[in-house]
Request: fold
Amino acid sequence: KAVSKEEFLKLHSKDEKPK
Reply:
């Protein structure tokens, strides 16, 4: 399933959090 960039960022927000 392809997800939009916004959805992808939301799903991975927990891993994309900058230190």
